[in-house]
Amino acid sequence: MRVFPTLFLTLSVLAASCSGARTDFVPQGPEDLAGHSVAVAANSSIDLALSKNEDIELLRIGIGELAVAVRSGRAEFAMMQEIQFDANHLRDMGLRKCFTGFMKGNAAVAVRQDDTLLCARFNAFLREFIASGERDQWMHDWSSNPDSMAVARSRIPVNTEGETIVNGITLTYPFLFMKDDRLTGLEVDLMERFCRWGGYRADYRIVDFPALIPALNTGKVDALVSHIQVTPERAKQVLFSDPYFEGSICCFGRDPEAAASPRKGLVQAVKDSVYANLIMEQHWKLLLQGLLVTLEISLFSILLSILLGAGFCFLRMRRSPALSRAVKLFAETVQGIPVLVVLMIMCYVIFAKSHVSGTLVAIFSFALFYGARFCELFRSGMLSVGRGQWEAGSALGLSKFQTFRLVALPQAFRRIIPVFKGEIVALIKSTSIVGYVAVMDLTCASNVIRARTFDAFFPLILVSVIYILLSRLSARALNALERKVNSKK
Amino acid sequence: MYLFGDRIRAGIEANLLREDRWRVMLDGLGMTLEVSLLALLFATLWGAALCAMRMSRRRALNRLAGVYIELMRSLPLLILLLVSFYVIFAASPLSKVQIAVVCFSLYFGAYFSEVFRTGIEGVDKGQREAGAALGMSRRQMFGRIVLPQALLRCLPLYKTQAVALIKSTSIVGYVSVMDLTKAGDFVRARTFDAFFPLLLVALIYLLLSWLFGTGLDWVERKLTPKHRNV
After folding, report:
1. What Cα–Cα distance (Å) separates residue A240 from each residue in A116, A229, A237?
2. CB count, 10 Å around CB of A193?
């Protein structure tokens, strides 16, 4: 077991070290990008603008992955807010701006279209905020030194009284980020100022950028403060406040000169990675929370799916053919759909209007999907127990339930456990997709860290190792169970 | 007040016809098929090679294949995809679709190899002995006696894994491949209607799984000696 991480690490180091493909080409405007690969945030306004040009090879990924994609060589160029480029010190990471000022973007708060009151209140606040000159100060402070600003603002108590506004956000430094276990950033600060002004209480929910507007329109959140740019398409779906921030988009690529900087020793590089990805801003806490969410979802899904599977199996084995056929059809339908699509349907269609947390939706989805699988598995186990066993049970004077519990179940369980083991491990592994519906699990936590440190290597390898350990441990526990069951023979 | 038929018509209008959105969905379906079929082909080949390694009498080869299979079986596919995309093949000239195909082949190759191994090990020892008694070489014995029986045995398991492969391609949207799921997501993001595109996507996947499943069932029936001469 100790071989895996080492093997994996060696392979990846080998692969990472042979990255090359330097380019001296510097585009001067969007028209120069034709024929090149450009990374953009999926569903962002930049994505919309550039996707009209079919010559550009667009890489539509998460906001946090833009710099990673360029650094790793996956894309030649990427586009992001200039303030984001500066505040993240991307220049020190071997990246350089190619051109700026593409698309003057106005970011505004988005609310539901019928929520004119909240919009009007925010606009009133914004007018005062701008008139007093506070806005320019706010903008200046946050763009020059986000970290000290975050510390300074954390001393001001937040408003805990009043009506709650749930804000949908996508973590992006310096707009929205975690510092000392607290959510902070330019936009969190803005929202807190607004709440103090208007007597509200702010709550935040981290959502993937493409899922922001659906989250708003399905009532999961009340407002979006995630540097969303005002575009005519979006204005048809949400109500925008007046813009609070005027940004400009810059295009950046790798700096060929910076790549020649002296290489650090391996030990120092590992030390730096550990510091940046685990210790800095208490990232380990984020990972730990993610791990707990993964464990929570896995555990409850396993329990619930076994119950569901047993229930389905019971219905399926009743003598009523209509019911049996209905359950079979249902189980086959659920199994014919990818678990990711099941998850999305649960999140955006079935539980769209209810205020059920993402974790619970994920648990229900996995329980349903694997319950349908367990139904057939349990049934095959029960069918493998011969009729003679049941007859023997009744001959011994056992009731039907007693025969089931004492005679049929142990035999059936022993037969299905090899497959059951595999399914449980598969369930645990498949929970890694819940980030799609805005649940902060282990995979998602590593994405958030990656988005902050722009290190493609370390967070991914770390979560790989954690997942491997998790799978191996659960497989081992199930093996022990199997041995125990078999020894009773 | 909407009637059901009107609602469906409005859904088709907004989600498929307007701005040629059906084209996006169709392209997505094409991409899903492309990735699935290529990955299926390479995963089957790689699985066969791995199986040969795993069953080889050389211990080093055997161990290596064993470690590889265990590694693949304990790593989430999504993590493998992200690692392939951002770490292993980051600087390679492979396109994102090619990386996805390679990644799925590497992952499912491990599963397929176990399927094949189960099939081969399930062939009774007496069959080999019978072959030896007939004076067949090892190669002849494998090709004429063990393989046909093993293939038939592993078809049901192979079917399950192949359908699992097709379904699991739905995660390639994570690395910006515009597959069926991502296309549905794209339409959803444009129309802000989750119901219609997601259900349509689910329906298409269902159809794909069903078609593929019945296809392999048909092959299985055709190959079963009982039915062959009927």
Report:
1. 10, 9, 9
2. 18
**Torsion from C-alpha of A423, A370, A329, A334, nearest 10 degrees:** -110
* Site from B170, B200, B211 to mutate, A interface, most A CB atoms within 10 angstroms: B170
CB–CB of B151/B118 below 8 Å?
no
Residues 6 or more apart in contact with residue A7 via CB below 8 angstroms: B67, B71
Residue A379, CB half-sphere, CA atoms under 13 Å: how many? 20
Main-chain dihedrals φ then ψ at residue A183, nearest 5 degrees: -80, 130
Token duo for residue A455: 């290190």
Whether omega for the bond prior to residue A174 falls within 30 degrees of 0, making it cis, is yes
Structural domains of chain A, with CATH: 106-246 (3.40.190.10), 283-487 (1.10.3720.10)
What class does CATH assign to B4-225? mainly alpha
Q: What is the pLDDT of residues A411-457, one digit of tens each?
A: 898 889 988 999 999 999 999 999 877 788 899 888 888 877 878 78
A463 — contact with chain B (CB < 8 Å)?
yes
CA A47 to chain CA centroid, Å, is 20
Distance CA A346, CA A281 (A): 34
Biggest CA-to-CA distance, chain A? 91
Name the residue among B83, B89, B205 with its Cβ closest to that of A460: B83
Query: Which residues lie below 8 Å from residue A30, measured CB to CB, with a gap of 6+?
Result: A50, A53, A102, A251
Question: Which pLDDT band, with edges at 50, 70 and 90, does A2 fall under?
Answer: very low
What is the C-alpha separation between B202 and A334, in angstroms, rounded? 9
Amino acid residing at A373: R
Q: Are A175 and A230 in contact (CB under 8 A)?
A: no
Residue labelled with tokens 């526990």: A477
8 Å CB contact of B75 and A339: no
Give A246-267 pLDDT, tens digit per residue. Answer: 878 889 988 877 655 556 677 8
3-state secondary structure at position B73: helix
Beta bridge partners of A203: A166
CB pairs under 8 A between A and B: 155
Mutate to test the interface with A, among B198, B203, B204, B208 (most CBs of A within 10 A): B198
CB-nearest partner of A214 from B71, B79, B192: B192
CB–CB contact A461 B76 (8 Å): no
Which amino acid, residue A306? Answer: I
Domain boundaries, chain B: 4-225
pLDDT exceeds 50 at position A46: yes
**Average of per-residue pLDDT across B3-23:** 77
CA A398 to chain centre: 52
Q: In this structure, what token pair is assigned to residue B15?
A: 């989600």
pLDDT digits (tens, 9 = 90+) for A61-71: 877 788 888 88
